[in-house]
Amino acid sequence: xxxxxxxxxxxxxxxxxxxxxxxxxxxxxxxxxxxxxxxxxxxxxxxxxxxxxxxxxxxxxxxxxxxxxxxxxxxxxxxxxxxxxxxxxxxxxxxxxxxxxxxxxxxxxxxxxxxxxxxxxxxxxxxxxxxxxxxxxxxxxxxxxxxxxxxxxxxxxxxxxxxxxxxxxxxxxxxxxxxxxxxxxxxxxxxxxxxxxxxxxxxxxxxxxxxxxxxxxxxxxxxxxxxxxxxxxxxxxxxxxxxxxxxxxxxxxxxxxxxxxxxxxxxxxxxxxxxxxxxxxxxxxxxxxxxxxxxxxxxxxxxxxxxxxxxxxxxxxxxxxxxxxxxxxxxxxxxxxxxxxxxxxxxxxxxxxxxxxxxxxxxxxxxxxxxxxxxxxxxxxxxxxxxxxxxxxxxxxxxxxxxxxxxxxxxxxxxxxxx
Amino acid sequence: xxxxxxxxxxxxxxxxxxxxxxxxxxxxxxxxxxxxxxxxxxxxxxxxxxxxxxxxxxxxxxxxxxxxxxxxxxxxxxxxxxxxxxxxxxxxxxxxxxxxxxxxxxxxxxxxxxxxxxxxxxxxxxxxxxxxxxxxxxxxxxxxxxxxxxxxxxxxxxxxxxxxxxxxxxxxxxxxxxxxxxxxxxxxxxxxxxxxxxxxxxxxxxxxxxxxxxxxxxxxxxxxxxxxxxxxxxxxxxxxxxxxxxxxxxxxxxxxxxxxxxxxxxxxxxxxxxxxxxxxxxxxxxxxxxxxxxxxxxxxxxxxxxxxxxxxxxxxxxxxxxxxxxxxxxxxxxxxxxxxxxxxxxxxxxxxxxxxxxxxxxxxxxxxxxxxxxxxxxxxxxxxxxxxxxxxxxxxxxxxxxxxxxxxxxxxxxxxxxx
Lengths: 419, 419
What we know:
TIM Barrel
């Protein structure tokens, strides 16, 4: 499908026509009159690369608002895990579709996920026309039998996964150091090296987690993971609220990346913020994630950018830290670099994962600085049009099949809570 | 104007018809068929009391995005104050209208303001059909001549202000302890007592402010204000990030209230968060404010609620702190109590400052808990209809005169930055 976007503003100011062909931006010029299958009016809109959600559990949309304002342990044990134990693949399919729908409405076209029922998530992502780096959750709770099952299941998924390309990339998803055995982590490290697979893992989210590895292995979570051969430039660790300077040195040396989920960290009250200054000083690549709908409860990367930028300023005591433009870039091409997605800008040759932001709301007056407006003022609801891999997935805020997705996801969630 | 809202959901669950007459909710029943001037379809919407913005500087919309990511002193001295010195009454009129427009779109019908050109702000508020507690900024910089001018000007405004009722309430607005002399503060205290006027003041926002009063008066800002007779149940102090337990005891004893602006505190990196636990332990009434558009940069009280609730959890280390429902109540009837606005609920006899929230977005599935969805998931852009004092000011997200307001405010902002 060829798409021509007429007279749209670019972030740097000028108004241009953009021609998209074969999934890439093919031309950007003052006037383009090539014939296109679809023409979009860019008036009063700005074209931006889409957002990349660096850490989430998509199908947890089904649990949104089911349990809030609770201590983490009670929240997990009495609420979340109870409902999750009843989940079916069909539930996950509709929950993931709902998450994709919400992310599309917020300008997200790629997300890095960890959840159960991998193939159902993968089907949902493909059906929605966006992209996911999906990991099957790997949890063995130190039980060799479970470990074997998980390994077999991941080997099988790795084979199956080819079927869902190019929308879906298979990743390994060891849940956390307190839920996966040393031996399994070593296997994951080796399998990731052998097949060049991304690894997505919770890392140093809570103090309990660091106490766990200190007690059991005499090491910090990062030190322990390095020892198991898990850290490399394919590794993305989520949270990292509790890392030390030595950890930062290891992460930098191994080329590992981090994803901060500021909203979730506040809501679950994990006791420490992402160490923005330390991570920057060591040049560790990082981007942003919403985390799942149960601990946020919104999949809006624009909101997440604002939280991240403001918490960075507050926690460093420096109002110039993580300025608007850098924040925007970390949420777009910074994420693209971490997840090996290639170029991620509005320029000729880039992948056409492009969104149009509607600037007609009063919050965009006077619009002195587009990056400031995007990060500090806008919300996902100002996204008007979303193009993923050169295909329109939302136009004028309408997404195909929206009503059915909401209805079926609602049924699934209600069934789950009454089952 | 009589308004009939048909088949709308109430927060507690049931679907009802609501009849509004003479600015109050006159009937809530399963079916009401009284003739009305306007009938609104409440399908897929929930009726809520409107939000109250406890602290802002409305016309600073004109400066939004003009200067961000800067240290406070440089930001004020090189950017904000330079532009503000060029402001005209006409600028403030359009800037305030733009702010009112944005607040209406976010479900706010009352705001507590402090800014220059009082009458121009008052005109704007009346023309927009919402409500403001407006204070003229009182700054004398310890200059007796300026103090005299400010006193005269406030006495005059107090007389003029009657003209703008009922939309506008006149308040005294001593800017801060470091910009208003002791003598002026004493005069403000006495004038407020004599005429029962609200007092709106920045209070203990930064460490510099507490150092200032310690150095000059040997007291904390709160202790100093008590000594000047300024603290009473008419006093609302904005920020209060740097208060002590003794300060909290004084605030509780005098009946003073506080307004926290969490987004601004992070963005300007003031070094300390609002002391949620302390303030709650002493039972000090508090509500939320956006602060001005230059330090936020959005006038969305729903976003501010989320920041407040999550920062409260994080800073107390308690994920059960400031739960969704309490957060919502502080942003609505909590504010109404602080600003003496009367009942502020969806019940017969209450003022008809009512908003309808559109629940059709994917973010409202599965909707297990309406308060959780309002605080943690929703944003102002889901507000569909706004009624202020029994009059519709927005329906289907359309506000009368929107295009002109945006155009004129843009002209004013551009003129200001190039003047």
